[in-house]
C-alpha cells in the first residue's frame, strides 16, 4: 500500500477499524458500526467523515434516512478495506489495539521491514515532526513491536529500527499483495 495513503488513512483513530468491519460484513449503518468499534460518537463521526472525504466510503443511494445514512465501500475502498482487515486481525487484543489507533504506528511499521535509520523513516513520512517520530518509535519499542539496534560498523554509530513480533505481523499484513 502506498505510504501516503496509509498516512492519510491512519490520521483518524477508527478509520482502519471501520473499514475492517465493513469488509467483514457489518452493515453500513452508523449504529451497528459505532457499536462494533466502541468509539465515542465524536471520534466515530470524525473517522467516518474522513473516510468519505478520502473517497473510500460513500453514501449508499436509496438506503437509509437522510439523518441516518447508510454507507458502502467504494471500489478503492474495497481494496484498502481488505488490507485494513488484515491489519486489525493481526492485533486482536484491545490494549494493543490502542497503540494501533495512534496516527503514526501503522506507517512506521510499514517502513521497517528492513533496518531503517531515523532520518530515512522521517524522509518517507514527510509530514511527521522529529518529536512525533521519536515518541512513536519509543512507544513501539516499549511494546516490543520494534527493535532498536546500534550500528557500529561506521565511524559514527547510529541506531536502526526494525519491526519485530506484532510489528512484523502488521508489516506483512500491510505489504501483502492479494
UniProtKB/TrEMBL annotation:
Keywords: DNA-binding, Transcription, Transcription regulation. Pfam families: HxlR. SUPFAM superfamilies: Winged helix' DNA-binding domain. One of its GO terms (molecular function) is DNA binding. The keyword Cell wall biogenesis/degradation does not apply. It comes from the Bacteria. The keyword Nuclease does not apply. This is Transcriptional regulator. Residues 102-173 form the HTH hxlR-type domain. The lineage of its organism: Bacteria, Pseudomonadati, Pseudomonadota, Alphaproteobacteria, Hyphomicrobiales.
Amino acid at each position: 500500500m502506498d505510504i501516503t495513503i496509509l498516512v492519510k488513512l491512519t490520521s483518524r483513530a477508527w478509520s482502519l477499524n471501520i473499514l475492517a468491519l465493513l469488509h467483514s460484513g457489518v452493515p453500513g449503518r452508523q449504529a451497528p458500526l459505532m457499536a462494533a468499534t466502541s468509539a465515542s460518537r465524536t471520534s466515530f463521526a470524525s473517522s467516518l467523515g474522513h473516510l468519505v472525504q478520502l473517497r473510500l466510503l460513500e453514501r449508499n443511494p436509496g438506503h437509509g434516512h437522510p439523518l441516518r445514512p447508510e454507507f458502502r465501500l467504494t471500489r478503492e475502498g474495497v481494496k484498502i478495506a481488505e488490507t485494513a482487515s488484515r491489519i486489525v486481525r493481526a492485533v486482536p487484543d484491545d490494549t494493543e489495539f490502542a497503540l494501533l489507533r495512534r496516527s503514526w504506528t501503522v506507517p512506521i511499521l510499514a517502513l521497517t521491514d528492513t533496518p531503517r535509520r531515523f532520518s530515512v523513516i522521517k524522509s518517507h513520512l514527510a509530514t511527521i515532526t522529529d518529536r512525533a517520530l521519536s515518541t512513536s518509535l519509543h512507544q513501539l519499542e516499549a511494546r516490543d513491536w520494534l527493535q532498536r539496534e546500534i550500528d557500529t560498523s561506521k565511524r559514527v554509530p547510529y541506531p536502526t529500527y526494525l519491526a519485530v513480533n506484532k510489528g512484523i505481523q502488521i508489516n506483512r499484513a500491510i505489504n501483502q499483495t492479494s
